[in-house]
Amino acid sequence: MASRVMSTLDYPDTLLRKVLGSTKSIAIVGASANRARPVFIVTKYLISKGFRVFPVNPGHAGGEILGQPAYARLADIPEPIDMVDIFRRPDAVPGIVDEALSLDPRPKVIWMQLTIRNDEAAAKAEAAGLTVIMDRCTKIEYGRLVGENSWAGINSGVIDSRRPVQTVEYQRFRLPGVVGGGERK
Amino acid sequence: MSEDRAPGFATLAVHAGAKPDPTTGARATPIYQTTSYVFNDVDHAASLFGLQAFGNIYTRIMSPTSAVLEERIAALEGGTAALAVASGHAAQLVVLHALMQPGDEFIAARQLYGGSINQFNHSFKSFGWNVQWADINDISTFEKAVSPKTKAIFIESIANPGGVVTDIEAIAAVAKRAGVPLIVDNTLATPYLCRPLDFGADIVVHSLTKFIGGHGNSIGGIIVDGGKFNWTATNRYPFLSEPRPEYNGMILGETFGNFAFAIACRVMGLRDLGPAISPFNSFLILTGAETLPLRMQKHSDNAKAVAEYLSKHPKVTWVSYAGLPGDRCYKLAQKYCPKGAGAVLTFGVEGGEAAGVTLVSTVKLFSHLANIGDTRSLIIHPWSTTHSQLTPEQRKAAGAGDDVIRLSVGIEDAADIIADLDQALAAT
């Protein structure tokens, strides 16, 4: 099973914390308005954490997903993005990476969600100076690092005797220093 | 400490899952003795109920106190997540509920705790979950029991009461060939002595009542998700691979990655069957877990000293303790639990049932009761108690013949434990 092989990818927590803590805008490639799909749940979560989120899906272009205008292609997004978060099959990744590399300014991070991995495309993006994360979920990693996953008995791998960073609401934590992270208007 | 440095077992036993309380700064994990949690707004409530956000709703399904216990044990076992429940029996119920449909089969080792044999033979059969028994002394019996209806294999790492060590890797290979998860009850070993997930197990269950709680004061159980089984590769496990109507058509195995099994157990088994652990019990068990490495080493060292003493006693016909050189399980114990073979051992007393009854009636330091895994030394005659609901044949097959005495050796001074047995054996 391919997913078992993929789980051998190892990203130190310091790297994931830096990536998620310095990202402000995220393009969601393969966005969906179907609330049963993982991409919908992740999009909603990232919005709640204060990230600027841009859904990308040609089928929704011109419409909205979760209140955010949706775009057909990365190039259509009207402002610079920090991260391209990919919810597409591995064979679609090279085209998306090429699109990302042709943006000006380029995004800093290519992130592929759970079970998505394309080593060639990753190498190309890394050679261009981008950070690449594969086979990880942005929501799971954010929630793990800030302590929210721990409410579901999930092994965060984090040991920290310092106070968790709470938002103004019940049961919501955030990374230190994230602009607007979780503080809803 | 550096975030990318992997902490050791003793550090995890004290710290994993527990941060200072964000509201009060309490450093010990508070007992959240409440039934329910206030939502920020209706959207927050909808997100929690729809599994779109983690958080607390209602203590039947989760509690911040129990969550610390869950993360602690998941970390100690090397798993991805865990779910604490009301008892070890509840853990077995919730695990199999997630895997089995009526008419399905699971394979279980004959060498199990008598209560588990009862649960599998009677209550689970009434659900249409059909147990097929196999023998850990002959791995081919597991292979032969596999059928298209098989959904899981269930073993104990160290079997209760026999003190027998199971060849986890060999049975994991059978499970892998059959495409089913291997469930290991790791109660007697605890993750300090043995980590079944490192040997190919997929799910670990515990009676927390025993060594993890360790003080004989709280009933509890836990399910640990190993995170490696691919639940969506086939449609054999529809709870994980099919859209769930009550969660907007969400597919749990796809949405929750390598901790999907633990989530499925929580949001279906615990939600619907209801065997929730009380936050107070979670607090007590968590306190016990902090000293697990210290206690398990002392339990094992004391048990070895007792086994050595008994093996030389003229009224003792045999001793079964995998930590004794020469024991038939010694080699397996060196592989699976090299730090020690645990606290539980059995021996045969000359004079059969009558001598057994005299022995348990004459001890003064040992307590005669049905539990194991207390700080105190415990003694029982399984034939007349824990295994008495089984047939004589089942009792013998489970390692509970009429001459068998089971000890759970405590953490008192070894010399005092041995002196008590010495005076009681003299009376038989």
Largest interface: A-B, 43 and 59 residues
Assigned CATH superfamily of the largest domain in chain B: Type I PLP-dependent aspartate aminotransferase-like (Major domain)
Structural class of chain B: alpha/beta
Query: Class of the largest domain in chain B, according to the CATH hierarchy?
Result: Alpha Beta
N- to C-terminal separation of chain A?
Answer: 44 Å
Shape of chain B: globular
Q: Any idea what the CATH architecture of the largest domain in chain B is?
A: 3-Layer(aba) Sandwich
> What are the low-pLDDT stretches of chain B, counting only 5+ consecutive residues below 50?
none
Order of helices and strands of chain A: HHEHEEEEHEHEH
Q: Unreliable runs of chain A, pLDDT <50, ≥5 residues?
A: 1-7, 180-185
Task: Kindly report how far apart the N and C termini of chain B lie.
Answer: 57 Å
Global Rg of chain B: 22 Å
Q: What's the average pLDDT of chain B?
A: 95
Number of strands of chain A: 7
Per the CATH scheme, the topology name of chain A is: Rossmann fold
